[in-house]
Structure formats: structure tokens, C-alpha cells
Specification:
alpha/beta, eight-stranded mixed β-sheet, 14 helices, 2-enoyl-CoA Hydratase, Chain A, domain 1, 2 domains, two-stranded antiparallel ribbon, about 325 residues, single chain, 10 strands, globular
């Protein structure tokens, strides 16, 4: 059963009529020609309505799409794009963290090491993967795998989809901040090509820890931010006694944060946008995954000829440029 977001209700109503008409026609044996004409009209109306809605999504609506429960997950990308995948587990220090998965395989025929957040889909899977919110051992596992990639000259491809690193007491006691910093540092010092894909949510340091890559790509309706819109609205606007900040404030903050792929491409925080099927990646996951595969392969083709020194320099300059201030023009260079 398809899950509809609040702003998709007009489409939901039309598609419900389509299902009702199809079931009624089948049960009553209605005329096939008239049935086909009416179904075709309704389907065309639904498609046009969906295209109109998704052509003007605001940042808060894009955040909802990025969080959609049916959006492709890390395992979906691996199953479709990576052959001979061998999952590698554990940080060789404390334990295994299922919020970050990784291993070796062939990405569209190219040997790589792939890492990514896994949120899970069913309730049981989400609990197992801690909703994609990694603990310190997850980031230390990522460092271990990146060390392995460099040792065997394997390009690294990462898939980011997390609300942020897990903020629990146990995680803090085991050095969450230090683990995130070490993982980010390892990304920046890699002597092999690295491509990161913001596939859904890119939340805070939990995202950047495996996204400090040579090339950073975002799906069209994904989001990438230092804090969630709700978190920022709570800090800025939540009044004493309120359980949650007002919804209009959340929408306002989402727009101010510049969290969409379109905003971040303009700010040169990311390098490219991967177009999603109309209605989002959750409607046609196979098409979305194929588009991501093509974009990553193209990015790797450009990076592969570079030497270790060139890759490190390229990565360093890429991130320094984000915060570099141009005194003459009053903006980042």
C-alpha cells in the first residue's frame, strides 16, 4: 500500500478513484472500452497533478520527501548496483553498529568499497539499524573500511541517509564526537577517489563523517543540513510549556537553512544533483537507483586518473573553498 504525504492528498484521491473504478469494472464486467477511456483520463490527471505538485515543493516538503519510508535504502542501492558484495562488520574495538554498513564489491563492474547509512524499512529493521543513527563504533568501522580501501587502492562510494549521529549517553561515553571527527578526517586524507551521495537525509556531523568526499552528489529531493528544521525551530522559537515549535515556524526555518539540493548546488556545497522520477524516488525506486549509478560512475571516471596527492589536494581545496571569504565581493570564493 502506497504511503502519501500530506501535500500529496489531491493525487491520493484521484488514485483511490482509479483503484475503485478498476475494481468495480472487474466485478461488474463493464464495457472494456469505456472503462479504459475513463481509467486513462484519471491516470493522466493524476500524473499531471503529481508533476505540478513536485515542480514547486518548498524546503519543508522536500524534507518530508527525503524522509519518506519507501525511499530507496542503502541495501537497495547495493542490491541493484553492486555485485560480489562482501559485507565487513565490526570496528575491532567495541562492537558492530548496524546503522552504518559497508563492504567491498563491484560497482557497475568497477571494484570499490561502499559505505552507507541503513535506516531499515520494517519496524524490526529500523530498531536493528537504530533508524540510521550511528554510534561511535559505526564511525570507527567506517574508518577501518576506508583504511582498507586505501590499502588496496579501491575507490570509496558512500550513501548518506541519517537524521544525525545517535545522541545517547552510551554513545557520548564511548567518544561520539571524536569518532565523527576521525571519520571526517579519514575521508579528507584518503589517497583514493571518493564519491558521496546524499540519498535522503543528510543530518549534521553524522552525515559529513562519511560525506567529506571529492565529489558530493544529492538526489533532487534530498536534504543536507547541520541541524533538522524541527531542531532549529525548537532552539529559536519554542516557548516555555510548548511541546513542539509551531509548524509555520518549522517551515520558515527549513527555508532559511538552505537545505535543499538546489540551494546547496548554488552555494557550491555539493557538486551535482541527481534527478528523481516525478513524484520522488519512492515512486520509482529502480529508475532513481539507476540514475544514481550513472552519476556515480561518471564522477569516478573523472577522479580515477588523479594521483593520490592530486586527490587529497582536490578534496582539501574543495572544502576550504566553502568557507573561504572573498573580501572584494563579500561572498565565499
Amino acid at each position: 500500500m502506497r504511503t502519501y504525504l500530506d501535500f500529496e492528498k489531491p493525487v491520493a484521491e484521484i488514485e483511490a478513484k482509479i483503484e475503485e473504478l478498476a475494481a468495480l469494472a472487474e466485478a461488474s464486467g463493464a464495457d472494456a472500452i469505456s472503462q479504459g477511456v475513463e481509467l486513462s483520463r484519471l491516470k493522466s490527471k493524476a500524473e499531471n497533478q503529481l508533476a505540478a505538485i513536485y515542480a514547486k515543493l518548498d524546503p519543508w516538503q522536500k524534507t518530508q520527501v527525503a524522509r519518506h519510508p519507501d525511499r530507496p535504502r542503502f541495501r537497495d542501492y547495493v542490491a541493484s548496483l553492486v555485485t560480489d558484495f562482501i559485507e565487513l562488520s565490526g570496528d575491532r574495538n567495541y562492537g558492530e553498529d548496524a546503522a552504518i554498513l559497508g563492504g567491498t564489491g563491484k560497482f557497475l563492474g568497477r571494484p570499490v568499497l561502499v559505505i552507507g547509512h541503513e535506516k531499515g524499512r520494517t519496524t524490526q529493521e529500523r530498531l536493528k539499524h537504530n533508524f540510521g543513527m550511528a554510534r561511535p563504533e559505526g564511525y570507527r568501522k567506517a574508518v577501518r573500511l576506508m583504511d582498507l580501501a586505501e590499502r588496496f587502492s579501491l575507490p570509496v562510494v558512500s550513501f548518506v541517509d541519517t537524521a544525525g549521529a545517535y545522541p545517547g549517553i552510551g554513545a557520548e561515553e564511548r567518544g561520539q564526537g571524536e569518532a565523527i571527527a576521525r571519520s571526517t578526517e579519514r575521508c579528507l586524507t584518503l589517497g583514493v577517489p571518493m564519491v558521496a551521495v546524499i540519498a535522503g537525509e543528510g543530518g549534521s556531523g553524522g552525515a559529513i563523517a562519511i560525506a567529506a568526499a571529492n565529489t558530493v552528489l544529492m538526489l533532487e529531493h534530498s536534504v543536507y543540513s547541520v541541524i533538522s528544521p524541527e531542531g532549529a525551530a525548537s532552539i529559536l522559537y519554542k516557548k516555555k510549556g510548548d511541546e513542539e515549535p509551531r509548524s509555520d515556524r518549522v517551515k520558515e526555518v527549513a527555508a532559511s537553512l538552505k537545505i535543499t539540493a538546489q540551494d546547496l548546488l548554488e552555494l557550491k556545497v555539493i557538486d551535482g544533483i541527481v534527478k528523481e522520477p516525478v513524484g520522488g524516488a519512492h515512486r520509482e525506486p529502480a529508475a532513481a537507483i539507476a540514475a544514481v549509478g550513472a552519476a556515480v560512475a561518471q564522477a569516478l571516471d573523472k577522479l580515477t586518473p588523479k594521483t593520490e596527492t592530486e586527490l587529497r589536494t582536490h578534496r582539501r581545496e574543495r572544502f576550504l573553498a566553502i568557507g573561504r571569504f572573498d573580501a572584494e565581493h563579500g561572498a565565499s570564493a
